[in-house]
Structure formats: structure tokens, C-alpha cells
Design brief:
Order of helices and strands: HHEHHEEHH
Number of domains: 1
Protein name: MarR family transcriptional regulator
Largest sheet: 3 strands, antiparallel
Shape: globular
Number of helices: 6
GO molecular function: DNA-binding transcription factor activity
Distance between the termini: 23 Å
Strand content: 5-15%
Oligomer: single chain
């Protein structure tokens, strides 16, 4: 016998719907700005951010996990970025099945040019809308949800 769904009450639904609308609109606008400003896709940008934050080199699966992507999506993204010279793939000598993804000089140049513009858009669209106290509360709430999700099955 199937359990009755635990439907959201009106307050929960309003909170959820508002969060989703905000997230989709924010990510959409930031993605369009990255594309316009730097000619990189949002996917290019996030891959280069994660790589450069990690010193420019990550194992393929570690990178995929950091951006919460399936292996196939990461593989296609890396292939596209490799063709454009933004990243390179290097075999892992101690594990023949694994590979490292490396930010190339062109990848570093692209992220260094894009990041200042991106952070200005983040400030304008997100940071400037909130007080320091609200930002702190949002960070705490976000971390609580992240911690909770880590304990839940995928």
C-alpha cells in the first residue's frame, strides 16, 4: 500500500516556489551575462572556476562531483573545452583508468578576464539586495540544508 504524499502547506509551498523562482532567474541572468561578457558558457565558467580554485588540476571524477554533474555530461563538457584550448586532459600515471583535467594558459586567461565581470553581476543582482545580517542568515540556512542533504539518500 502506497503512503499518502506529505503535501506542502501554503507557507511551505510559497517558500519553495519563491526559492526556485529566485534561483532560476538568478542563474539564468548570470549565465547570460557570462556568455555575453566572456563568450564562455556558464558550464565553461564553472568548470574553470573549480579547476583554478583547486590549483588548476583535478581528477576527472573529482571535478564532476564538485559541480554535481554526471560523468557523461562532464565528459562532453571537457571535450568541448579541450577543442577550444581551455582545458587539457592528462592520463593518471598511477591509475590507468583515471584522468586529470588541467586548466591551460588559455583557460586561466579566460577565467581571469571573466571573473571580475561575473562578481560585479553577482553583487548587483544578489549581494546588494541583502543586508549583512540577511547574508549571514542565508549562509547558515544554506549550510543547514547542505548538511541535511548529505545525510539523505541520493
Amino acid at each position: 500500500m502506497q503512503e499518502t504524499p506529505r503535501w506542502l502547506d501554503p507557507e511551505q509551498k510559497t517558500a519553495w516556489d519563491s526559492f526556485i523562482r529566485m534561483q532560476e532567474k538568478l542563474i539564468g541572468r548570470l549565465s547570460r551575462r557570462v556568455q555575453t561578457d566572456s563568450k564562455m558558457s556558464a558550464a565553461d565558467y564553472i568548470v574553470l572556476v573549480k579547476l583554478t580554485e583547486a590549483g588548476g588540476r583535478l581528477r576527472f571524477l573529482e571535478l564532476a562531483n564538485l559541480v554535481e554533474w554526471e560523468k557523461s555530461r562532464m565528459s562532453h563538457q571537457v571535450t568541448r573545452m579541450t577543442k577550444r584550448g581551455l582545458v587539457a586532459k592528462e592520463e593518471c600515471l598511477d591509475d590507468g583508468r583515471g584522468a586529470f583535467i588541467i586548466a591551460t594558459p588559455a583557460g586561466y586567461a579566460a577565467i581571469e578576464a571573466a571573473a571580475p565581470l561575473h562578481v560585479e553581476h553577482v553583487r548587483r543582482l544578489f549581494i546588494d539586495a541583502l543586508t549583512p545580517e540577511e547574508l549571514s542568515t542565508l549562509a547558515q540556512i544554506s549550510q543547514r540544508v547542505l548538511d541535511h542533504m548529505e545525510k539523505q539518500p541520493d
